[in-house]
Design goal:
single chain; about 190 residues; alpha+beta; Immunoglobulin-like; 4-stranded antiparallel β-sheet; 8 strands; about 30% helix; binds calcium ion; membrane
């Protein structure tokens, strides 16, 4: 790589170092863009459909008493690699036979998702009904069909870049290269 603005005769060790550092900066920026684009797919919507209303959980089985309240209280959680539970909230007293939809206000990167969990919320401990890995195809398990929608976004890509060890390494190389170039300018 030759830079016409640099005269070979006057090239000091610092000039070579800054040239190398400029290369590192350029490479880091390109790697950031490439990795961010590659990891930019985020989960935006979860749809849950119960296949058989008779098999949905109920809070009690007493006839005529509070039939509306007895309906299931579905809740969806997204579990990510850092074992963080993204709680999407509950839908109290609603059957899922017509399909219930949860939209994510901030999409979760799909490559970070370990599982998508459907629960029936309860006053003490919510019961996990099913848990499935992320899938681009609809998943049918037990009494439920789960469908997922995704979208690509720069925010998801950049966030997951800075959370990955490779991203942190590249960002560190970028910062060090900038510091070295900065020192070189003052010498
Ligand atoms: Ca209920
Ligand atoms: Ca319940």
């Amino acid at each position: 790589m030759t830079d016409p603005t640099l005269e070979p005769r006057s090239r000091s060790p610092w000039a070579i170092t800054s040239l190398v550092c400029s290369g590192v900066v350029l490479f880091s920026v390109l790697a950031c863009v490439a990795l961010a684009a590659w990891q930019s797919e985020g989960l935006t919507q979860v749809k849950v459909t119960a296949l058989d209303a008779d098999k949905e959980p109920r809070d009690h089985g007493i006839p005529l008493l509070k039939q509306k309240e007895a309906l299931p209280d579905y809740e969806v959680q997204i579990v990510t690699q850092d074992l963080f539970n993204h709680k999407l909230g509950a839908r109290p007293n609603q059957s899922a036979t017509d399909g219930l939809v949860w939209n994510l206000s901030s999409p979760v990167a799909v490559h970070e998702i370990v599982g998508i969990r459907l629960l029936d919320q309860d006053q003490l401990v919510s019961d996990t009904l099913v848990e499935v890995p992320f899938s681009r195809q609809p998943v049918e398990i037990d009494n439920y069909r789960l469908e997922f929608q995704t979208a690509h976004s720069a925010a998801v890509g950049v966030n997951s870049f800075f959370r990955s060890p490779l991203g942190v390494t590249i960002a560190t190389a970028f910062v060090l290269a900038i510091i070295v170039i900065g020192i070189g300018l003052f010498l």
